[in-house]
Amino acid sequence: MTNAIGIEKNKAEKLASKLNILLAHYSLFYQNTRGYHWNIKGNKFFELHLKFEELYNDLLLKIDEVAERILTLGHSPEFKYSAYSKSSAIKESALVSNGTKAVENILASFKIIIEMQRGILVLSADANDEGTNALMSDYIRLQEKQVWMYSSFLKK
Q: What does the DSSP assignment read for 102-114?
C-alpha cells in the first residue's frame, strides 16, 4: 500500500518519524543560535553577530521545509518544544556570550545534524523517496561547507 506520492506507507511513516526527530534537532539548534546572536560580546562581535543571524535564518527555513516534507509524506510534524527537548541530542545552551564557545557549540550541533541526515538518506534511498533524498543531500552539502568555514574561524 502506498501513500499519495507513491511511497510505501510503512516506509513513509518511518521517514516521517526520523524527520520529526530532525525537526526537533533543528528547532533547538535554531533557538540556541538566536541566543548566541543576541548575547555575543567581544572583539568579533560584528562578524559573529551577522554570521549567527544568517545561520538562524537558514535554520528557520529548514525547519519549515522539514515540517512540510513530513506533511508531504502524509504525517504531522511535531511542534511542541517539550517533545523536541525529549527527542533531540542537541540540548538548550546556557547563556553564551563568548564567540569561540558559541562557534564550538554550532560545530557540535552541525555534527549531530549531518550524521542524522546521512541516516535519513539511507532510509529515503530504500523508500525510493527522491524528495527527501534531495533535501537531505542539499542540506549536507551546504552544512559541510559551513563546518569548514566555522572550523577555519577557530583555526582547526
A: HHHHHHHHHHHHH
pTM: 0.95
Q: Does residue 123 sit within a domain?
A: yes
In a domain, 3, yes or no: no
Selection from 116, 155, 151, 111 nearest residue 136 by Cα: 116
Contacts of 5 (CB under 8 A, 6+ apart): 72, 73, 74, 131
3-state secondary structure of 155: coil
Q: How many domains does the chain have?
A: 1
For 13-55, how does the pLDDT look when each residue is reduced to its tens digit (9 = 90+)?
999 999 999 999 999 999 999 999 999 999 899 999 999 999 9
Instruction: Answer for the pair 22, 116: CB distance below 8 angstroms, yes or no.
Output: yes
Domain assignment of residue 76, given as a range:
14-153
Rounded distance between C-alpha atoms, residue 76 and residue 70, angstroms: 6
Cell of 30: 535554531
3, 74 contact by CB (below 8 A) = yes
Q: Is residue 1 part of a domain?
A: no
Residue 3's pLDDT band, with cuts at 50, 70 and 90, is: very high
Query: What does pLDDT average to over the chain?
Result: 96
Whether 5 maps to a domain, the answer reads no
